[in-house]
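Subject: YbjQ family protein structure
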Amino acid sequence: MKRFLVTTTPLLDGIKIQEYLGVVNANIVIGANVISDFAASLTDFFGGTSDSYQKRMNEMYESAIKELKRKTMLMGGNAIVSFNVDFDELSGKGKSMFMLSATGTACVANLNEDIKLSDNGSIISADNVKRVVEKNKILKKLSSHEALTASDCNQMLANPSCDYLEYIFQYYYPIFRKDGNLNYSEETKQLVSLLQEQEVVPIVYKYYPQNKAIAKLIIGCSLFDPKSVLDLLSKDKDLAIDVLAADKPYYNMEDVAIMEQIIKGFEELPDIATHTKGKLGLFGKETDIIICPYGHKYLPENNCCPTCGTDVRGLTIDDREIVENFKTKVQVIKKELSGN
Ligand SMILES: [Zn+2]
């Protein structure tokens, strides 16, 4: 038999993908009466209490895989990556149907002889399917703001995935907790720490502008990313300031170069104060004055507003301290790296 591989991951360890052919999908619909009480028992299904459900489910699953394989082979492929399976109940007109949707990316992979394949040529395991189904159930809960149970959280931590993080940031308050409360939590931090840093960073910075609480996560989990912060600075200096104290696990000279650009960016922030002529106080002479971004008037000889401490770039005393600390940190890193 020709070797064929199905996997839930986007990339295959040790296997080179020569060509991506496109997404393939299959829907298998079955009447709920065929499997009585099927929907009601779905929750218990994976407890393994009922053999007939298990059997029926496996059949649906096998048909879906078969269909995906058929489509992939027609396209000239020999592997499916990012395989995903989902279940949905369709009801209407007093009838209830059950649908299994499977999708995957068809591709041509260099399948060398070292990879062990099962009898039917695919390497997906029942455990794997169970995990994907469980994962999709949790993602659905997250997208509908449903409280998660302790077992959901355990499941997320046992099989960590960036998909969870996307959903947490996008649909939920950025945080999930075992007690269902929406707050910054150890569990979120734990989930982040279980994932690959290079996978987490793009997701974190993608959602941070719309979800400011993520700043805490960036600091708490040492997810400082020079490129992303430089990009934030060009859009909104406050977003950059809120994560400027964050660290990254290791720094190299490339990081230093970008961090120096960040410092330069702060120094070159535009003057947003109003420079005008006016009087200070009732009997003051008409002279050059500055109006700070918060509306306080002061004389140009002060380098920041004496009332609120904001300078012409709109940086507060605290902001300037954060930027100063960042400068010091960059100097230290640079010195250590250059061995002086
Ligand atoms: Zn002021």
